[in-house]
User: Fold this.
Amino acid sequence: MNILIKNVLLDGAKTDIFIENGTILEVSPACARSADKIIDGHGKAALPSLTNGHTHAAMTLFRGFADDMPLKAWLEEKIWVLEAKLTADDVYWGARLACLEMIKNGITVFNDMYWHWEATARAVRDAKIRGFISAVFIDMFDNGKGREQIAHNRELYDLSKSYEPYVTFTFGPHAIYTVSRESLEWMRDFSAENDILIHMHLAETKSESVFSQNTYGLSPTAFLDSLGILSERYTGCHGCMLEKSDLELLARHGARLVHVPVSNLKLAVERIFPHSLVQDAGIPYCFGTDGCASNNHLDILETMKFASLLAKFCSSDPTMLPARQTFDMATQTAADIFRLGRWSIEVGASPDIILVDLKRPEFIPNFDIYSDMVYATNGSAVNTVICMGEVIMEDRIIPGEEEIMARAAEAAHDLVKR
Assistant:
């Protein structure tokens, strides 16, 4: 499919952008090519789409169900109780709702870990966005359960081929306190043999660090290093308890991180992501929302603002994590982490593209689009979304959105009643 975006603002200038099968072939003041689809970009800015680096997509079903609770009680008395009742159909509609919400917020790429892998994969395919999808791998140090999980993940890896190009299979070991050494070693080897990314909670809470020290005599990061898990394929999420020595290990092996500030603040995990130390170590990281049970919505622009403000506040340095750097981390750095290539609007690149409505109060006077995107606006400013060369939202309309919301609401209320 050919798409021509006319008269859109790009780097401060009125521009035409011609896209063929997802690849940008021309960026010029006046493109004369014919196209299957012409989009009027007047009053809009073109930007590369955003990535959500850590989600539990179907937890949209739990939005607002159990707020303002201590973490342990929240998990054991509310979340795990409902998750035990989840069906594949529940997860499908919860994930469809998540995809809908993310598209509305300019997100076309997300990195997910949740139950009922294929239900999420179907939701991603039907939404026509990009999902890096892992099943939750938990064996609770039970050898039998570990063998079951290994067999299940082998099957999912083979199955994932049928969901390409929308879905990429990844490994999702939950955390060091829920996954055995033996299972982690198997994932290390299978990941290396098949070049599979690993998505894992890392150093999120004090209790995780205490468990690791008591069990292995090492920090969570050092334990993973002792197993040979850390590599350029490894992405650790949260990282609130990371110390300088941990970051040196991560940097040495080329590992990546995801900063999840809103969820960590809401759940009061005692410490926040150590931006200054991570920056000093030179570790690439992007941003994640977490699931809607612990964040309540999937707006990565809000997350970016929190990340930037926290970096400034915690360092007493207002120059830390400036707007342009923050935006680039949510786009190009994330694309590097998830191996998506050049994520910029230039000839020869194949980024997903969003058009942002500049005719909104928060964009006036629009001195700096990156400042406005990070500090002033939110996902509702996104007007049009193009993913893999297909227009999946135009004028904030997504085909079938009313049914998705109705079915997800029905699934959520039914789940609570079971």
Notes: Residues 157 and 169 are 6 Å apart (CA to CA). Residues 51-337 form a domain with the TIM Barrel fold (CATH 3.20.20.140). The chain has two domains: 2-48+345-401, 51-337.
